Amino acid sequence: MRAGSLQPILGFLDHAGVQTGRWLDRARVPQRELAKPAGLISLPSTYRFLELVARHEDMSDLGPQAAARVTSFSLGGYGQTLQLAATVREYLVTGASRVTTMENQGLSIWLASEGTSIRVNQVLAECAGIGGAVADSYVLMVTIGTLQKMLGADWWPDEIGLRRGTDALLGSRAAQFPGRVRYGLPHSYFTLPRETLCLPNAASITRPGQAAGTVGAPPPLFPTSFAGSAERLLEALLGEGITSIDIAAEAAGMSRRQFQRRLAESGTSFSSLLTALRMRHARDWLANSEISVAELAAELAYTDDSNFARAFRRETGLAPAAYRKSLKALH
């Protein structure tokens, strides 16, 4: 994960007077990387750090406490895009479809319809132990807290579900929550009434020259990293049906080994970039077009639709048709 993702939690701990240095060292988190938002920290080290703090600083509810200091809107360009959403539905659908662009290394979010309710589901990769539970509750509560900014502080989900933990994981937030909390589930989630989707985003912003209430993508940015440049290159090649690492390396003016090494130094790999790119396009097309699954598989240069369907289910937990159906149910 990127060091910038840990900064809100470190900021909260500093404010609370916690001496984080020894816990970072014991978890083998490279502190030199923390000064660089794009610096790389392994997920196991991050989870170990959170577990040490939760255990030894008596902060089982670290996730919700830290989440109270940040919203989705503060997460760089991704957050700025979300803040442009005119309605709750647009915020949730945009966030779920674009979360892979954050280099989150394992976070999946998807929406499902359940009668009169909408369920916002989340899975955090390698979410093991107390540290993983803290991270999982933190991500979920950031989304809930952002919705409270949009809908008012009195708004709460109808129900919250967490993969693991007890009421201690939510601390005082558990007492504040008027609905049902469940633990020990296959994935985390919260629910909200379907009619909430059409409510306006009270926290939305407009860019200069943009009419109030309209939404659009932020202006394109030039890549600021090798991984970003490689992603742009792969996107161009994918448009031609090319998914070969050898051709990509040649187009980048490098040998295959040099190309792989530069990607590894950037904290990613060719297969990871290609998969993230394919899944981003797949989510967008499934949400905004009537293209068939077979045609979509061909557009994304899969050998057949079954390979695409397996890859999509592995990333989202849903088959492509089920994902499209869940989005249509939100309209």
UniProtKB/TrEMBL annotation:
GO molecular function: DNA-binding transcription factor activity; transcription cis-regulatory region binding
Record's protein name: AraC family transcriptional regulator
PROSITE patterns: HTH_ARAC_FAMILY_1, HTH_ARAC_FAMILY_2
Keyword Nucleotide-binding recorded: no
Secreted in keyword set: no
Residues covered by the HTH araC/xylS-type domain: 228-326
Keywords of this entry: DNA-binding, Transcription, Transcription regulation
Gene Ontology CC terms: cytosol
UniProt-listed SUPFAM superfamilies: Homeodomain-like
Domain of life the protein comes from: Bacteria
